[in-house]
Amino acid sequence: MKTIVITGSTRGIGYGLAEAFLVRGCNVVVSGRTHEAVDQAVTTLAIQHTSERVLGKSCDVSDFNQVQALWDAAKDFFGQVDIWVNNAGLSSTLMDFWTLETERIDSVVGANLLGTMYGSKVAITGMLDQGFGALYNYGGRGQYWTCASWHDALREHQTRWTPSDRGFG
Ligand SMILES: NC(=O)c1ccc[n+]([C@@H]2O[C@H](COP(=O)([O-])OP(=O)(O)OC[C@H]3O[C@@H](n4cnc5c(N)ncnc54)[C@H](OP(=O)(O)O)[C@@H]3O)[C@@H](O)[C@H]2O)c1
Predict the structure, then answer these.
(1) Domain span at 19
(2) 3-class state of residue 36 by DSSP
């Protein structure tokens, strides 16, 4: 039985992924920034699927220690992590970049750029240690409209270094 960690899975695409993996018999770790949102998602998923295969853990991906704690909780509870999905992200309403509040820029960079980098670092380190695993990164409007080409360059770099490409996937 595979174990899947999905960052930002309290709603949206991440929540849909959690449901789809549960339907296919996988263990799933659901996460988001707040305990309340995580508990709500886990409660709903546990009603529709078996609660033994769903673990909830709050994690703000812009904080490295919280991302590491997410990996550790998944590993402790399920014994291994087969797939890590860096899904957490923020998109802004389409608007001129220079009109964005600096707080909004900080939160987008924190979730989309730092979150992807921290998640990749933690997942690749853990997967190299356990000897297997696959990492998936999401890209989207938040990145393209606010972080532009330097973020794409980083994603390209990360993609080349996924454990899958090194024979672990
Ligand atoms: N929807 C699209 O059309 C589209 C297209 C291309 C790419 N994407 C990408 O797909 C991913 C998901 O998009 P979506 O439309 O499903 O977004 P969404 O509905 O807004 O959901 C975003 C998820 O990310 C979580 N999140 C936000 N900031 C976070 C942070 N700092 N730390 C941890 N979790 C955080 C949110 O949870 P909490 O609020 O509970 O923290 C929520 O679960 C994003 O990376 C987005 O860029 C989306």
Answers:
(1) 3-166
(2) helix
CA atoms lying within 13 Å on the CB side of residue 86: 29
The number of domains in the chain is 1
> Is 108 in contact with 159 (CB distance < 8 Å)?
no
- Look up the CATH number of the domain holding residue 48: 3.40.50.720
- Pick from 33, 104, 143, 151 the residue to mutate for probing ligand 1's pocket: most ligand atoms within 8 Å of its CB: 33
Pocket test for ligand 1, best of 9, 60, 90 (most atoms within 8 A of CB): 90
In DSSP terms, 86 is beta-bridged to: 137
d(CA 164, CA 23) in angstroms, rounded, equals 24
For the Cβ of 146 lying below 6 angstroms from any atom of ligand 1, the answer is no
- Ligand 1 atom closest to 13 (CA): 16
pLDDT in single tens digits along all 169 residues of the chain: 999 999 999 999 999 999 999 999 999 999 999 999 999 999 999 999 988 999 999 999 999 999 999 999 999 999 999 999 999 999 767 888 899 899 999 999 999 999 999 999 999 999 999 999 999 998 765 444 433 333 443 344 444 444 444 433 3
In angstroms, rounded to a whole number, what is the distance separating the alpha carbons of residues 15 and 88? 11
